[in-house]
Write a structure and sequence with these properties.
heterodimer, A: alpha/beta, five-stranded parallel β-sheet, B: alpha/beta, Rossmann fold, 2 domains, four-stranded parallel β-sheet
Chain lengths: 212, 342
């Protein structure tokens, strides 16, 4: 077990960037950069988030009683961006927090214990609210299932919705997103990486081959 | 992290900080409507206690139950359990019943280390003789970090002097100001007072606090100072009043009547006069300093009742933190794959 920085590579059964230290993955963007193809530019990411913010406001009738909960690591930053965007459109930013799902994952026993990420719930809690879960990539759906369980322990929201920057398909559970930045058809062997300025220094979504 | 937790010296700084960070995150579970996580569902933790204990055993039990583990309590109290072979047989029996971890307290120093050779599950030392009590040291370190690095607490980048009170704006991306995550206890001055000779709490604390970067001084009557204290990673002193003026943390140890096989000091009154913490002595402490005690206390012997109940005292917080820190240890030892791949 070690506290490595989570890496934004999405593999089957690993739709959240976990703290894995498998040797078979690119650890730096510079390594084999030619293998990674940018599928979203910073402008496209910005526009996608603006559209999602508008859609959330539309679907929730002006964002009444919503709470944005990002799934660490990158979902947290996306949730904060969405909250700020909603603030620009409506005057008040939506309450935002983060929800760590590590303790609720179904694959805990497959790897050494992982460091926990931060869970921060806005002061008013989630009871009776419309919670919008925010993640960077929707893949197997297992992270979202874990998030629904984790949310269950925090309270009883009126409803739960899901916003993702990229939906890459290959669901393993009956879960779908309410708001999608980009539907990205992928092969199972491919990997999707989301880079965000707050943690990676730049905004980008990359598609590449998973190394065998 | 190692397979077992026998000694505070087994922990690297990275391991120790990871345990404290995990505990900081788990602390919020206690404030939730449902104070339980499903993480250790199907795991079994055995509390194997050959010595009396209230808080350590219940603390481990609460920690394991909050993580949904099954708990079996085995108390040797009242039975004539011999050492050696029978400890082994007991442990093997419990393991045959499907235990994944054994939390052991034993009057013989080194018993948990022996146990670790015999069983295939994890072993956690919950106090062995006068040797070590690593989870107590972890919860003490957690309490220090929580109290001293909280907003408005002392700023140890300025040589341990209390910082001008500047709560500052809440950072939008980081945690709250005074965020403890990732931090050790660098530069924190800790004074441990009392029966150092018999104290497993003192030994584990000295080792862990040194790993975390704190400066430790142990203070005791000469008769209760271990011979080998010179080899410990700490300073030793005999004058409590001098140390109190320049410390951030003072930790009072219990006078352990049950381990005193000889007359180590003339009278309890004499001990109290020279090494007890009363309100007069507490006034010598710097303004931000905290008073700790691992419990159980002898009120009126090593610590006065008014001191134990003062706002500087962290004694109740230590008990609360004991559960979260033990949850962190159990999660990190049992929550992942059975065999560490790394």
């Amino acid at each position: 077990m070690c506290a490595m920085r989570p890496e934004p590579v999405h593999e089957p059964g690993d739709s959240q960037p976990g703290n894995l230290d498998r040797p078979d993955r690119p650890s730096q963007r510079d390594q084999g950069q030619q293998d990674w193809k940018a599928v979203l530019t910073p402008e496209e990411i910005r526009r996608a988030l603006s559209r999602i913010a508008h859609e959330i406001l539309e679907r929730t009738h002006g964002g009444e009683g919503i709470v944005l909960l990002g799934i660490p690591t990158r979902g947290t930053y996306l949730a904060r961006r969405l909250s700020a965007r909603i603030g620009e459109f409506e005057g008040t930013p939506a309450p935002v927090g983060s929800l760590d799902v590590t303790m609720h994952r179904d694959d805990l026993r497959l790897r050494p214990a992982r460091a926990l990420q931060r869970t921060e719930v806005p002061p008013d809690g989630v009871d009776g609210k419309t919670v919008v879960l925010v993640d960077d990539v929707l893949f197997s759906g297992r992270t979202v299932r874990a998030a629904l369980d984790a949310l269950n322990d925090l309270g009883r929201p009126r409803s739960v919705q899901l916003a993702v920057l990229v939906d890459r398909g290959h669901r393993e559970l009956p879960i779908r997103a309410d708001y999608v930045g980009k539907n990205l058809p992928t092969a199972h062997r491919e990997a999707v990486r989301v880079l965000l300025a707050e943690i990676d220094g730049e905004d980008s979504v990359l598609l590449g081959e998973r190394e065998a | 992290m190692n397979r077992h937790l026998i000694s505070a010296a087994d922990l690297s700084r990275e391991d120790a900080v990871l345990i404290l960070d995990t505990a900081a995150e788990l602390a919020s579970v206690a404030d939730r409507p449902i104070k339980k996580l499903p993480t250790l569902r199907g795991r079994t933790v055995v509390n194997l206690f050959y010595e009396d204990s209230t808080r350590t055993r219940t603390s481990f039990e609460a920690a394991a139950k909050r993580l949904s583990a099954d708990v079996i309590n085995f108390s040797a109290k009242g039975s004539s359990v011999a050492k050696g072979e029978s400890l082994k047989d007991t442990a093997l029996t419990l393991e045959a019943m499907g235990s994944d971890a054994i939390v052991v307290r034993h009057p013989a120093s080194g018993a948990p280390r022996r146990l670790a050779d015999w069983v295939s599950g994890r072993v956690i030392n919950a106090g062995d003789g006068t040797h070590e009590h690593p989870t107590q040291a972890l919860l003490d370190a957690f309490t220090m970090r929580q109290r001293l690095f909280s907003p408005g607490g002392a700023d140890f980048s300025h040589g341990g002097l209390p910082a001008p009170h500047s709560p500052g704006p809440r950072s939008p991306l980081g945690g709250p100001p005074g965020d403890q995550r990732g931090k050790g206890l660098d530069g924190v001055r800790v004074t441990i007072v009392g029966d150092i000779l018999h104290s497993r709490v003192a030994r584990s604390n000295v080792l862990l606090l040194d790993t975390l970067g704190a400066e430790v001084t142990v203070v005791a009557p000469p008769t209760l100072m271990p011979y080998a204290v010179g080899t410990w990673p700490c300073k030793a002193g005999y004058d409590l009043d001098a140390e109190l003026r320049k410390t951030d943390v003072v930790m009072m140890l219990r006078v352990q009547q049950e381990r005193m096989s000889a007359a180590f000091f003339p009278t309890v009154r004499e001990y109290r006069r020279r090494y007890g913490l009363d309100t007069g002595r507490m006034a010598l402490l710097p303004e931000h300093a905290i008073v700790m005690h691992p419990g159980p206390m002898n009120r009126g012997v090593e610590i006065a009742a008014e001191v134990a109940d003062s706002p500087r005292s962290t004694i109740v917080a230590q008990v609360t933190n004991g559960v979260t820190v033990r949850m962190a240890v159990l999660y990190l030892m049992l929550g992942g794959a059975a065999e560490d791949a790394s």
